[in-house]
Amino acid sequence: MCNPTLIVAGASAVLQYQVANQQQKAQQEQQKRQNELALRNREAKIVTTQRQLIEKTKARLTRISDAEKTARKKRSMFKVNRENFTGNSYDVLLANYYDTEANYRNRVLGNIERSTFNYLQGTLPAIDNQYEAQSTYVTQVNKGYNALNSGLTFASTYYDYKAKQNRFETDVDPYDYGTSESLYYDGWED
């Protein structure tokens, strides 16, 4: 005959096992959602910084284009008025136009190159580090550990139950037929 205490302890161990599995599954799902959110944040930041880099580059290239148009206009006016200048002074002034234009273009192109380098070497690693800080390790559901824990809880309850029976000497089996104290023992031996 089963004792109600042991039945309750067994049911409790089964429920403890199920609850532990559910908690671990819920924690796993939360970790997956956190990683998905971190990945979306990373992708959004990359898109934003790339858009900013493209807009800055377009604006700088537009400035180069405007500067080249202005320089061409000045050179064309200068070439029309060539009669006012003599040999070497004409060449020096024309070289000065080209030099000024090239310096400006190279400075702007250098800024574009530096921005791209900073994006690739500074911004992207920082975004990746932030993603790693926001993401988490996804733990797996450990059913073996949960079963072992529930089994140990049941074993502890069973041990406590048997210890109390032994202490209070209530561990007497009423249907013990193998001893001389049996109800049906008549003292005859074959």
Task: Annotate the secondary structure layout.
Elements: H1 4-80, H2 87-134, H3 143-168
Helix pairs in contact: 1-2, 1-3
Cα radius of gyration in angstroms: 44 Å
Cα separation of the termini? 31 Å
Count of separate structural domains: 1
**Helix count, DSSP H or I runs of 4 or more residues:** 3
Give a verbal description of the structure.
The protein is mainly alpha-helical and 190 residues long. The protein has one domain. The chain is built from three helices and no strands. The chain has helices spanning 4-80, 87-134, 143-168. The protein starts with a helix and ends in a 22-residue tail after the last helix. The mean pLDDT is 81.
